[in-house]
């Protein structure tokens, strides 16, 4: 399973509405020992993403689901708000941010990274 966006993924994401604010939903499934590694990534993320306007809205570890099909449970959820899709893309390309992306990649076996916008 892919855990990192490709160049084509980023191009399609940016083409949709480059200046629109977005909140990214991250659904995360950890590799063995990945929880601690991901916590390191979140610390790195917080240190490098603020200058792009990124704001962690919520980060929490998952527990046994109340309603879910087998395999639909997640180890953690991260919600991050960005002032625009463009800001997200600029952050992802930033060399300082990229120095810590290996922590995320090493921590995960599966991830969903889904842009969301508010209703109403």
TrEMBL record:
InterPro entries for this protein: Dimeric_a/b-barrel (IPR011008), DUF1330 (IPR010753)
DUF1330 domain segment(s): 35-109
Transmembrane segments: none
Protein name: DUF1330 domain-containing protein
Species name: Pseudonocardia yuanmonensis
Lineage, broadest ranks: Bacteria, Bacillati, Actinomycetota, Actinomycetes, Pseudonocardiales
């Amino acid at each position: 399973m892919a855990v990192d966006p490709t160049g084509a993924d980023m191009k399609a994401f940016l083409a949709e509405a480059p200046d629109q604010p977005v909140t990214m939903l991250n659904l995360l499934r950890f590799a063995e020992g990945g929880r601690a590694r991901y916590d390191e990534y979140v610390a790195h993320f917080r240190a490098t993403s603020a200058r792009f306007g990124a704001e962690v809205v919520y980060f929490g570890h998952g527990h046994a689901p109340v309603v879910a099909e087998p395999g639909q449970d997640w180890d953690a959820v991260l919600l991050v708000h960005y002032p625009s899709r463009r800001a997200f893309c600029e952050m992802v390309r930033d060399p300082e941010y990229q120095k810590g992306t290996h922590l995320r990649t090493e921590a995960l076996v599966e991830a969903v990274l889904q842009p969301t916008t508010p209703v109403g």
